[in-house]
Request: fold
Amino acid sequence: MNFSARIAFSVVLFLIFQSCEYFNTTTITPKQIKEQSKWNEKDQPPSFPECDGLDSDDQMDCFKDIVSQTISDILYQYNFSSSSQLNEEVVLKLEVDAEGYFSLLEIEDENDVLSQIETLYSTLDKAVSGLPQALPAIKTNVGIKVKTSFSIPIKIIASPQS
Reply:
């Protein structure tokens, strides 16, 4: 081997050994992932453009007010009737996915309102599906959009059937 080939071989060999540090991997434990995934006050909750510029707590209140008012407006279009006078509350558990779309996860119904109004569940589900697309929540420490869930109370008023 001539001198320049030896130098080239030595340089290549040196670079190979030096670049080995780029192949080192760090392992992240499930505990670290869970810890970093917890919601904290720096994270951005879901929102609507109307709520931009508010601090985190006020922004979430604004968001919930818009959701509640929109669902209430939809429900006012229906004239619910039941076997008895109803003035009860149900709690909707909603999810906002990473694209900002809503879905109904569950309805907490302590007073059995759903069984007293036949179409209530499907009407609430349609109302939630009809909510405008929101700005999704953002996990700021990793900068990604995430799905979130929250609960919102809804007042149900129905008159006895005639």
